[in-house]
Design a protein that fits this description.
By secondary structure, the protein is α+β, with helices and mostly antiparallel strands. It is built from 4 helices and 3 strands. The protein is 31% helix and 18% strand. The longest helix has 12 residues.
């Protein structure tokens, strides 16, 4: 995308649907790991959590979020804030995410 979208915050969430969990082919948004995304100037701010404080994929996920968002010409930088409150639970998984997990044979 070349120009800044009319609703950049919503577009950030749409772009984050493309970022998949490293262990399961499901988006971070559908897993409920994205707590918020907003654009301030040309800086994307992403509030992100993990399924556990000792998640082995934390750095991969941070890198994937940055890499995807920095592809956009209207984003100059990405700031990630880790959010632990409220804690992540399976209740945060979207219905689309639940359907995807069921097709993979994962019960939710």
């Amino acid at each position: 995308m070349d120009a800044r979208p009319d609703n950049p915050d919503a577009m950030l969430v749409e772009l984050l649907h493309e970022v998949l969990d490293p262990e399961l082919p499901i988006s971070l948004v559908d897993l409920g790991l994205i707590y918020g995304a907003r654009l301030e100037g040309e800086v994307a701010h992403v509030d992100l959590t993990f399924t556990a404080t000792a998640c082995p994929c934390m750095e991969f996920i941070r890198e994937d979020v940055r890499d995807r968002l920095e592809l956009e010409s209207w984003i100059d930088a990405v700031e990630i804030r880790e959010v632990w409150d409220p804690p992540w639970t399976r209740d945060r998984i979207s219905e689309r995410g639940r359907r995807r997990l069921r097709t993979l044979g994962v019960g939710v």
